[in-house]
Design goal:
Strand content: under 5%
CATH architecture: Orthogonal Bundle
Largest sheet: none
Shape: globular
Number of domains: 1
Structural class: mainly alpha
Number of strands: 0
Number of helices: 5
Helix content: 40-55%
Radius of gyration: 13 Å
């Protein structure tokens, strides 16, 4: 198996297990957990959303209409991971968490 295929398989498995832990439910609690997860989107470094936005600082007025695009920009850039589908429980839970701030 090629290294890139293995990485994709691991990322998909982690996301699947994370969604199973919450039964695919969209919750503020799950969003907070993901916000602090250094492996979100298969991140390849030690960064999490909380690394740059401690406690959600600066996100109180986040543009919810372009939320997925902004989050994925951070995941791909700063976290060196892979984008998350905006329709999935992970992204929707992150959105709920940010809205709760």
């Amino acid at each position: 198996m090629k290294k890139s295929s293995l990485v994709v398989t691991v990322i998909v498995s982690v996301l699947f297990l994370a969604s199973m832990a919450y039964g695919g439910k969209i919750t503020v609690e799950y969003g907070k957990e993901l916000f602090n997860d250094a492996k979100l989107g298969g991140s390849t470094n030690e960064s999490s959303c909380n690394s740059c936005h401690a406690g959600g600082k600066g996100l109180e007025k986040a543009n919810i209409k372009k939320f997925s695009k902004a989050v994925n920009k951070c995941i791909i850039g700063n976290m060196e991971g892979s984008k998350i589908d905006g329709r999935k429980a992970e992204m929707r839970s992150l959105k709920k968490y940010i809205q709760s701030l």
